[in-house]
């Protein structure tokens, strides 16, 4: 659990992001407010298309210019207003103070540069090291993530998927960032390699006291590595709290449904219990609660009235009109 006296590293207030595509407006993120304390790991959980990656890209201000219609709200990173910051300021932050690990390591690696050079490049740029020293630190970072020094002159295609992701992690952590954003970092890997990559992120994060945002749809991953949880649905955070609060006492019907859909190997069941229906079309969100069309507890009021944010105690908040009812 995060300590109450820790300083805030990242504060997001009422963030909304709209994309434009095919003459339609896509409501990707809708009024998200959240904060992250220094040294804390936050799990951002939700289905594909919920807005998780858009939030991450907004934090780094790398949203696609050609498709982004509007970005509103405030993102404060360690005293810097990200959305208002000039590009030269952002270039120092990206890869230096904030690093990101993407889902597919091949899209994050340059196929015509050796892995050693790719790690050294960030060290040279962000830590003002000469190229020779940056090279030495890059080799040390490779060894830290479990790759031998003699592979520094090899290219990405010579590595397996799990080893590529280790290289990406080495690049991301080479400058000891204040914040690491990991966007589904294990999805493309097999189960055994997933566990190794998660252990690596966890140990290196703790060693460097780096804050973490872990973007995932896997509640098991969150339980393994995170202190706090924010559950996102249709561009809104519907429930947030400490790991213990969310896992011991899930309150939002969507969160309850996510836990209910997890197979229990100790209990014999004829079929799983998925959440019925599909997420709403982000170009045509329902007027009331966005989860109402799929919610087993929804009333007419839920379908008409946007839910209120309820404080359940501690760090636990839930966006639902039915909270407090029997």
UniProtKB/TrEMBL annotation:
GO terms for cellular component: plasma membrane. It is a peripheral membrane protein. One of its GO terms (biological process) is peptide transport. SUPFAM superfamilies: P-loop containing nucleoside triphosphate hydrolases. This is Oligopeptide transport ATP-binding protein OppD. Transmembrane segments: none annotated. It is found in: Cell membrane. Gene3D superfamilies: P-loop containing nucleotide triphosphate hydrolases. Residues 12-259 form the ABC transporter domain. It holds the Pfam family oligo_HPY. The keyword ATP-binding applies. Signal peptide: none annotated. InterPro entries: AAA+_ATPase, ABC_Ni/Peptide_Import, ABC_transporter-like_ATP-bd, ABC_transporter-like_CS, Oligopep_ABC_C, P-loop_NTPase. Its main location: membrane. One of its GO terms (molecular function) is ATP binding. Belongs to the ABC transporter superfamily. Keywords: ATP-binding, Cell membrane, Membrane, Nucleotide-binding, Transport. The keyword ATP-binding applies.
